[in-house]
């Protein structure tokens, strides 16, 4: 037959179709997959035939013709989108896949988290409020480049689509949200969708059960395999245009296809299909896992397959289609492996093989009898015999061999239905030994699903060409099928190899939702090169398929990006850069300016000089000038003034009695006024009594009448906390260190701008030697101010000052020494006091040392004393035997060595007073005014009570003056009064009388040698007041008080040995022994540029603290959100800076006040800052523990402390019953009194900061309780509106965890082990905790987490005070949370994790955001809006574990919030 002339082919549809058959009824397939059939040719012959489909509908259609040279907007836009795809598509796909993998990982990880319980009604109420707010919230525009926004939007869109959200819902979401981020979009979808809608959209499978990738379902379901971390996604049938056309008829035929047990189409032998697939190692359900089920049966099957292959090889003729030995080798290897199986039995296996072989032979015989003989028969001459479907692939190659030699196969034929079928010759090269497409398909499918079955069949009825179909039945019943519809091959073998290539390409490149090609990026990374091993003709086919796939995907992606661009455009905003520049230019400078524009500055120099001259001429001034000139410092007046003229800083070291505190400020003032200069002099004092007394004295010396301080007629004033007595005419002001630092804050200057320091010309720092944290910080500030204020003069004064060190700190400034004027003091020590009084200490008494505690524990129960028990709580040093001189009696030596020096010897003090005042005449001259130094207010109160009960000291001949910082200013000033003749006074004071103030008539001092100071407890991680021995410099100051008017007498109640060998030379600076949190906050509110950051500022101190302490302080402030991670102060930080307490307890108090449970919070905070009220006497441990457990509430040490204090407070209502109550319940009456005093002090701090607004009558009552006499019987309760929820312990616990976080202990759900969340250390309950009984079963506490206040390392890491924590409250109030809606998890600072449904997750997130803004507004003193009040009400109900009403909530909270906000 003559060869036909090659002509242009008619437009025909692509010659094969693909179909995916789901396990259940499939949704209708869109027409775009099958309805449009376009002409197709090879890429080489007709490139335009494979043009990309229309961007809008996915069809392959030509665009509107455009004249040559004419501009086409559509073409330009298409080109621009294509450039965008080439540049960003791969990056977008990688980000989508990475995000999806992360989500899936998080989902699997979240299954191990404990569940988060949230009431459904509360959750729905929260989401309802959130939805209402979202509808009313305005949209904000994005100030970013469009390209960046579009790229992020593409990732968001791709992830949402592959999560399963349908196209319309995703488009609506992206148009509705303000931004383009994934989290915002997911939140919108969950907020605006019901759980039923989400369940329909998102069908997230358990990836542990996914053994093979699935074919994608409809667009409304979730494609889990798109990001699965398990095997790569399934080779689902791609939804392609005409190149992969699918007909309805082919779907019908495919629906009947199944695995080997399913009847085959007519004319097909089951064994032939098996043989054919086995010859190419297709996966027919056999695998290593399958063999392990029954090795004997599998042995029979494998041996039968090997036998059939060997028979087939013997029948094959020479020529093309050489047999593939790889299959036989693989089967033989598997057969040998099966024989080694543990359960393999050869006899049984051989019997099974013979039975199976007999069945196969019988089936083959029956097939031949029915005319289905597989042997070759001569084809009619001139005709090509249609190959039998039942024949093996090699037999098929031989059939028609003579026909092809006689007649050439045409390029195309017309099928029975009139369609043109293109004939392609896909024959293998001669002697081809490589892998065939069928082999590669079988291997690929086996890797994806070891249980999948691949089968082939012949379709169509044409006699000249063969068309084949391929079916893959995946595990679970999922079926994928492909057919050749308009392409044919000369024989069945070529057709099967052809359709195998199509199936292999489809399996290798899966489809995905959203962007096309997502499956490719996710699955084919390791399989992109195996097509190179295909025969040449099949490689060409692969290239053709790949080219069409890429063009189709690009067209689909262009359509997607075009749509996303329309979404982005309304979101992009523009900002006027010129406006930004003008705004920046308008920002006021923070540099300090000179604002000295007071009223007095309006006076001329002549007026100032005239006014001062008139004052000097007054009688009062001249009378006081005589006394002033007698002071030692008067001789140095000119030198001091001259030194300040020449230097900016002066260091003055003046001994006690020289008059420096009163005279030096007056010298400077008088010098400035005499020259007619304007001046503003501030003198800082460490204590308010010093500031008041010095102001009154200097005012009197300058000729002012009594009571004129702070008035218009006086030049002198003072300012202390809660009391400012200054006037605009004040030129000299005495202030406390704290007030001086407040003056450096922003807005403290005139008119609310700058600082008050801007008006100061001279500043004097008195008592620098005390090295308080405030004075040291003030030195840092002043050193920085010197550079900014060259006109500022600074004087540093002290009696026992290391002048050289201070001078060096200020760059070598001049030093001036001024001698004092004191009388000699007779110094006596403890041994002298005991020798003088004859007082004895015997073993077993309350003042005796406990030399053998272990022995005493074993003794029988005896009487116990509160003082001795409290001493046992302190650390006991090793006793040192004191050797005295021979002049002391043996009784004195024994008593000195037996006395516990930690105890205040009240009896010895009384004996000393009796000896000095009555019994020893040689000492009576020292009795007119006696000063007794005590460590604290409790000791002062006890000593005072003891003296009052004494028959002589409590009579009219003596006046008793307690002196403490909490005593009112009026009562403090009374100590300076000189009693009338015949009346003697006794002053009982703390170290407030040590320096700063001078009681002029003191002649005798009794020094207990102790003081109470703040120290940072490294173990407890908190600053606490502790009783310690004073330093030698402190002792010198104390005895110096007795030599002001005559020769004095001093008894130090510690041994001379301790004074000489054990006491420190000077006290340790507070900056080295206190927490730096308060100071760090103060640095942030300063309006003076000191350093770059907190650490930089503190390292500039005279004695800089360690870097560890600085970082610890910063970390604690960030933990409580007083500072941001970048060290910016927050509204809460500004409030905490005014509360001189531990920042954790300070935040606890603030939150408790906002939640209306302030009274129990004050008790808990005060108790944690003081000693425990519970006592454990030796021999009474069991009774004390039972008494303590009697106060236990909700397994919380914090609530137990509150309950014990409240019970004692009620008992105090019955006079005389309180001490009996304490003894019965093993409570310390003294400690409970101290707790009440601390409660009042903390309440006063809250009022001082204006955080709590109360009326004047309440403040008056509080001051009466704090500073009045008989204060021990007065209790102070917070205002009712701040204590409305005092009995709601759940709300109190919420405030507690808000303050103490991250001091949290987690309870392992499986093992019950306790671990801290900060460093994951194992921890145990301390025996003193009420939860100690749960040590072995902490899960019985019924909570997942506990908060703690103190944790200390001993034999174990012990938590002392613990209490249960509500998980929801912790998520709402603490740390930073990370909600993952799709992964169904929520994490707190990546340390605490919970499993929560998306709706619960979203509710917690919204409520937390609202509550955070509400608390910030309340801390700024702002009123709440109506919407904020609704959110606040819901939060309080939820944290209080009250179930909100589904219809409307309680109105009580709303009303109270209005009152609080208005206040």
TrEMBL record:
Q: Which reaction does it catalyse?
A: ATP + H2O = ADP + phosphate + H(+)
According to the UniProt entry, its GO molecular function terms are: ATP binding; hydrolase activity; RNA binding; RNA helicase activity
Q: Where is the composition biased (Polar residues)?
A: 36-45
UniProt domain Helicase C-terminal: residue ranges:
919-1087
Q: EC number(s)?
A: 3.6.4.13
Could you tell me the keywords of this UniProt record?
Answer: ATP-binding, Chloroplast, Helicase, Hydrolase, Nucleotide-binding, Plastid, RNA-binding, Transit peptide
Ranges for the Helicase ATP-binding domain?
A: 641-819
* Keyword Acyltransferase on entry: no
Biased-composition ranges, Pro residues, are: 230-239
Which InterPro entries does this chain map to? DEAD-box_helicase_OB_fold, DEAD/DEAH_box_helicase_dom, Helicase-assoc_dom, Helicase_ATP-bd, Helicase_C-like, P-loop_NTPase
Plastid found in the keyword field: yes
- Biased composition (Low complexity) is annotated at 49-62, 268-286
The cellular location(s) given in this protein's UniProt record come to: Plastid, Chloroplast
Q: Which PROSITE patterns match?
A: HELICASE_ATP_BIND_1, HELICASE_CTER
Name the segments for region: Disordered. 1-66, 226-245, 251-299
Return the PANTHER family for the record.
ATP-DEPENDENT RNA HELICASE (PTHR18934), ATP-DEPENDENT RNA HELICASE DHX57-RELATED (PTHR18934:SF145)
Q: What is this protein called?
A: RNA helicase
Q: What is the protein's species of origin?
A: Exidia glandulosa HHB12029
């Amino acid at each position: 037959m003559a060869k036909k002339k090659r002509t242009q082919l008619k437009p025909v549809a692509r010659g094969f179709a693909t179909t995916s058959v789901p396990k259940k009824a499939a949704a209708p397939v869109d027409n775009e997959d099958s309805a449009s059939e376009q002409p197709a040719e090879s890429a080489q012959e007709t490139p335009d035939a494979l043009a990309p489909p229309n961007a809008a509908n996915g069809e392959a259609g030509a665009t509107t013709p455009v004249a040559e040279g004419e501009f086409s907007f559509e073409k330009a836009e298409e080109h621009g989108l294509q450039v965008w795809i080439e540049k960003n598509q791969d990056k977008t796909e990688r980000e989508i896949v990475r995000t999806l993998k992360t989500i899936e990982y998080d989902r699997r990880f979240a299954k191990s988290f404990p569940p988060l319980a949230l009431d459904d009604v509360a959750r729905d109420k929260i989401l309802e409020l959130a939805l209402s707010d979202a509808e009313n919230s305005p949209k904000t525009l994005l100030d970013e480049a469009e390209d960046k926004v579009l790229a992020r939007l593409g990732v968001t869109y791709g992830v949402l689509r592959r999560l399963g959200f349908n196209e319309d819902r995703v488009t609506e979401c992206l148009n509705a949200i303000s931004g383009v981020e994934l989290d915002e979009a997911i939140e919108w979808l969950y907020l605006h969708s019901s759980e039923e809608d989400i369940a329909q959209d998102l069908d997230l499978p358990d990836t542990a059960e996914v053994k093979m990738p699935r074919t994608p379902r409809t667009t409304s379901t979730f494609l889990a395999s798109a990001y699965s971390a398990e095997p790569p996604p399934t080779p689902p049938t791609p939804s392609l245009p005409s190149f992969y056309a699918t007909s309805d008829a082919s779907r019908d035929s495919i629906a009947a296809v199944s695995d080997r047990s399913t009847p085959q189409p007519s004319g097909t032998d089951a064994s032939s299909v098996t043989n054919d697939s086995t010859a190419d190692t297709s996966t027919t359900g056999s695998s290593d896992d399958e063999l392990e089920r029954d090795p004997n049966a599998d042995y029979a099957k494998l041996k039968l397959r090997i036998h059939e292959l060997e028979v087939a090889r013997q029948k094959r003729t020479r020529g093309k289609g050489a047999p593939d030995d790889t299959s036989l080798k693989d089967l033989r290897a598997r057969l040998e492996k099966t024989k080694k199986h543990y359960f393999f039995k050869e006899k049984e296996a051989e019997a099974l093989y013979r039975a199976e072989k007999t069945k196969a032979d019988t089936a083959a015989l029956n097939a031949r009898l029915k005319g289905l003989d597989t042997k070759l028969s001569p084809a009619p001459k001139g005709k090509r015999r249609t190959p039998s479907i039942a024949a093996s692939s090699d037999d098929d190659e031989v059939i028609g061999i003579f026909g092809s030699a006689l007649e050439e196969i045409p390029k195309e034929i017309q099928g029975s239905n009139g369609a043109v079928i293109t004939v392609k010759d896909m024959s293998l090269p001669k002697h081809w030994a490589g892998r065939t497409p069928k082999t590669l398909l079988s291997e690929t499918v086996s890797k994806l699903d070891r249980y999948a079955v691949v089968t082939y069949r012949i379709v169509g009825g044409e006699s000249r060409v063969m068309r084949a179909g391929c079916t893959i039945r995946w595990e679970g019943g999922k079926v994928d099928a492909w057919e050749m519809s308009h392409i044919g091959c000369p024989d069945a073998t070529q057709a099967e190899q052809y359709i195998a290539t199509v199936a292999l390409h489809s399996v290798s490149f899966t489809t995905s939702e959203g962007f096309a090609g997502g499956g490719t990026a996710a699955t084919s990374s390791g399989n992109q090169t195996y097509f190179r091993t295909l025969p040449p003709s099949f490689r060409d086919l692969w290239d053709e398929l790949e080219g069409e796939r890429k063009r189709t995907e690009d067209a689909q992606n262009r359509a997607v990006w075009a749509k996303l661009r329309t979404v982005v455009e309304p979101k992009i905003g523009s900002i006027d850069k010129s406006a930004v520049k003008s705004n920046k230019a308008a920002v006021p400078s923070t540099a300090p300016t000179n604002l000295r524009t007071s009223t007095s500055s309006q006076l001329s120099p002549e007026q100032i000089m005239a006014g001062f001259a008139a004052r000097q001429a007054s009688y009062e001034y001249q009378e006081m000038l005589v006394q002033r000139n007698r002071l030692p410092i008067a001789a140095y007046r000119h030198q001091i003034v001259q030194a300040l003229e020449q230097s900016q800083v002066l260091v003055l070291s003046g001994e006690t009695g020289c008059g420096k505190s009163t005279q030096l400020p007056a010298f400077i003032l008088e010098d400035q006024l005499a020259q007619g200069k304007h001046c503003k002099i501030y003198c800082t004092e460490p204590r308010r009594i010093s500031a008041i007394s010095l102001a009154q004295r200097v005012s009197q010396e300058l000729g002012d009448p009594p009571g004129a301080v702070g008035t218009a007629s006086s030049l002198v004033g003072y300012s202390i906390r809660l009391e400012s007595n200054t006037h605009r005419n004040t030129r000299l002001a005495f202030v406390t260190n704290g007030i001086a630092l407040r003056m450096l804050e922003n807005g403290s200057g005139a008119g609310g701008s700058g600082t008050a320091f801007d008006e100061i010309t001279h500043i004097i720092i008195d008592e620098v030697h005390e090295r308080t944290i405030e004075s040291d910080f003030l030195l840092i500030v002043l050193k920085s101010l010197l550079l900014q204020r060259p006109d500022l003069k600074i004087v540093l004064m002290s009696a026992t000052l290391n002048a050289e060190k201070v001078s060096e700190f200020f760059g070598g400034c001049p030093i001036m020494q001024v001698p004092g004027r004191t009388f000699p003091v007779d110094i006596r020590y403890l041994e002298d006091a005991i020798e003088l009084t004859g007082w004895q200490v015997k073993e077993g008494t309350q003042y005796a040392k406990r030399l053998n505690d272990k022995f005493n524990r074993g003794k029988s129960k005896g009487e116990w004393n509160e003082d001795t028990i409290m001493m046992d709580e302190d650390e006991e040093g090793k006793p040192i035997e004191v050797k005295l001189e021979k002049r002391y009696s043996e009784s004195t030596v024994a008593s000195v060595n037996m006395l516990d020096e930690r105890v205040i010897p009240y009896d010895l003090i009384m004996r000393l007073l009796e000896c000095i005042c009555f019994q020893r005449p040689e000492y009576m001259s020292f009795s007119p005014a006696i000063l007794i130094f005590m460590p604290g207010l409790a000791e002062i109160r006890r000593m005072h009570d003891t003296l009052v009960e004494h028959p002589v000291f409590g009579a009219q001949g003596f006046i008793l003056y307690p002196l403490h910082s909490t005593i009112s200013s009026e009562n403090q000033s009374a100590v300076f009064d000189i009693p009338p003749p015949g009346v003697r006074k006794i002053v009982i004071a703390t170290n407030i009388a040590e320096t700063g103030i001078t009681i002029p008539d003191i002649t005798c001092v009794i020094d207990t040698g102790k003081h109470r100071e703040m120290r940072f407890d490294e173990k407890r991680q908190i600053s606490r007041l502790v009783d310690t021995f004073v330093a030698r410099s402190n002792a010198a100051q104390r005895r110096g008080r007795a030599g002001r008017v005559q020769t004095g007498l001093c008894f130090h109640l510690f041994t001379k040995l301790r004074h000489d060998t054990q006491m420190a030379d000077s006290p340790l600076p507070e900056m080295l022994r206190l927490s730096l949190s308060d100071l760090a906050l103060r640095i942030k509110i300063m309006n003076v540029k000191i350093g770059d950051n907190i650490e930089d500022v503190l390292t500039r101190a005279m004695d800089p603290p360690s870097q560890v302490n600085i970082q610890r302080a910063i970390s604690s402030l960030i933990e409580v959100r007083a500072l941001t991670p970048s060290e910016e102060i927050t509204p809460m930080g500004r409030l905490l800076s005014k509360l001189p307490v531990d920042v954790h307890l300070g935040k606890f108090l603030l939150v408790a006040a906002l939640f209306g449970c302030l009274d129990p919070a004050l008790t808990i905070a005060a108790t944690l800052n003081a000693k425990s009220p519970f006592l454990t006497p030796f021999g009474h441990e069991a009774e004390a523990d039972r008494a303590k457990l009697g106060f236990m509430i909700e397994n919380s040490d914090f609530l137990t402390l509150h309950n014990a204090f409240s019970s004692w407070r009620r008992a105090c209502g019955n006079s005389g019953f309180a001490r009996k109550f304490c003894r019965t319940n093993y409570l310390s009456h003294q400690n409970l009194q101290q707790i009440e005093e601390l409660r009042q002090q903390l309440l006063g701090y809250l009022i001082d900061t204006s955080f709590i607004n109360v009326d004047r009558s309440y403040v008056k009552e509080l001051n009466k309780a704090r500073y009045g006499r008989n204060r021990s019987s007065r209790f102070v309760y917070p205002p009712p509106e701040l204590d409305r929820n005092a009995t709601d312990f759940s709300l109190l616990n919420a405030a507690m965890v808000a303050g103490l976080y991250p001091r949290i202990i987690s309870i392992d759900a499986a093992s019950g082990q306790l671990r801290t969340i900060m460093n994951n250390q194992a921890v145990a309950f301390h025996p003193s905790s009420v939860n100690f009984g749960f040590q072995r079963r902490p899960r019985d506490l019924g909570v997942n987490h506990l908060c703690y206040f103190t944790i200390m390392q001993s034999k174990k890491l012990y938590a002392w005070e613990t209490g249960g924590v509500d998980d929801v409250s912790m998520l709402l109030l603490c740390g930073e949370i990370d909600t993952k809606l799709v992964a169904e998890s929520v994490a707190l600072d990546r340390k605490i994790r919970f499993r929560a449904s998306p709706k619960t997750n979203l509710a917690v997130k919204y409520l937390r955001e609202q509550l955070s803004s509400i608390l910030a507004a309340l801390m700024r003193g702002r009123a709440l809006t109506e919407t904020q009040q609704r959110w606040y009400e819901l939060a309080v109900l939820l944290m209080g574990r009250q179930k909100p009403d589904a219809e409307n909530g309680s109105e009580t909270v709303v009303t109270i919030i209005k009152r609080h906000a208005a206040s």
